[in-house]
Amino acid sequence: MRKLKLLTAVLSLLFILSCKKRQNTPEIITSKASVIQDCVATYLKLEAGQTYRVCNLTKAETFKTGEQVSVVYYLINVCNGGFREISCYKTPIKEDGVVYITEIKVQ
User: Fold this and answer.
1) Mean pLDDT value of segment 60-65
2) Mapped to the 3 state alphabet, what secondary structure does 10-72 carry?
């Protein structure tokens, strides 16, 4: 009986240790969008209608407002930046979230 309890305990421990934690990796999204540059931030207006603020401004700073782009991005919850240092007194555009761009190019 003692060996059975020990075997059960060892198997239970091995089972628990063999489980991997699921990594919290972001979902990479590819889409077509229109760039919106204003004095507050840079935004992407997707074909589906959502508007997202770009966190990493340097990726999109060379594109002009209205330019059609193909973009690869993922949604983020926290962005340390994404607003221009020198901005105007303007209400920011209503956004549906914040994105981090991994790749962007003209269509």
Assistant:
1) 94
2) HHHHHHHHHCCCCCCCCCCEEEEEEEEECCCCEEEEECCCCEEEECCHHHCCCCCCCCEEEEE
